[in-house]
Amino acid sequence: MNDSPTARPVPFLDLKAQQARIAADLRRRLDAVLGHCQFILGPEVAELEDTLAKFCGAKHCVTVSSGTDALQIAMMAEGIGPGDAVFLPAFTYTATAEVPLVLGATPVFVDVDPRTFQIDPEQLRARISVVRAGRRLRPRALVGVDLFGQPADWPALAAIAAQEGLFTIDDCAQSFGASLHGRMLGTAADATATSFFPSKPLGAYGDGGALFTDNSDRATLYRSLRTHGEGTTRYEVLRTGMNGRMDTLQAAVLLSKMTVFADELAARARIAQIYDSRLGNAVTIPARVPDSVSAWAIYAILLPDAAARDRMQAGMKAAGVPSAIYYPRPLHRQPAYRDAHDGAALPVSDDLATRIMALPIHPDLTEEDVSRICDAVLANI
Ligand SMILES: *Cc1c(COP(=O)(O)O)cnc(C)c1O
Questions:
Q1: Domain limits, the chain
Q2: C-alpha distances in Å from residue 47, one per residue of 43, 187, 248, 254
Q3: Model-level pTM?
């Protein structure tokens, strides 16, 4: 019996199985680093930057210590600070909003599309007008998030940003490897920031991140900022920077993971397809952004209400099938950000938080796992 209590629980994420697939290459890569001992900015870091830039089609890649630091360096490079409004979706991970606040700028929360969950360009336009009319903050930048693996509507966002004079940052932390209109994410905005947190589609064995840009001056600035604002020599300090480099060991891990990344993206897409066809008549499945390929970091379904979600999660858990909620609270409702929020209503983000639920999706789920997950969802509608 698939749902017998003795069946092994389905893993929400399975980093051990993935490690077994790349074991020999990974060992060779790690041994090379242990051999040369250049633990900071060793040769693997430059090799990874080259590999990642080629993979996504960006001219420059600058690896950094995390996705959050990638966002921070991108904003520091533009001098974003007090008095600046940074527009971003209310329905995203906390780091997107944290960074402007750390720099003294003000996050302006924008509502999202109820079916794709991505930042809504029309809502963005409306929020920019309100900020302009208020004359307290200067509209300065847009952080578009590619949520759950799907790309945001970058053509629409970039057009608005160009009209309004906003710098664009693509928070691609969940979506490295996704593409829109046949182009991989990495060049959709003025700067693209991604994360290699272990649970992201391309995950390291610790923290890591990267910035992508086609602008070589900006790439130089990012390299300077990640190493204390250094100039062409180590003891020339040109600007206030930070310690934001990626470890050589993490670069080695990521180089090894890149050998299977495309296959893993394909495996995630196959699982999403099975979920669509087996669950599409029973629950609201995630709507696809037109002409895009998702990296499928998260497969999120919508249930009718919070009570139905509670019942579903409890029933699935009893069957040994995990689920998760991204995100139980939109950012404008978080204690840390309430004071920064101007009080605008963001009804879609509020609604999604009450009834969204994520199913496991990772390349090492077996066919039997996927079928058990579908059975568990269908049994608890
Ligand atoms: C994970 C994530 C980040 C932060 O990345 P870290 O590497 O954990 O710092 C930023 N934005 C979004 C949308 C994320 O999901």
A1: 20-258, 260-379
A2: 6, 20, 10, 10
A3: 0.97
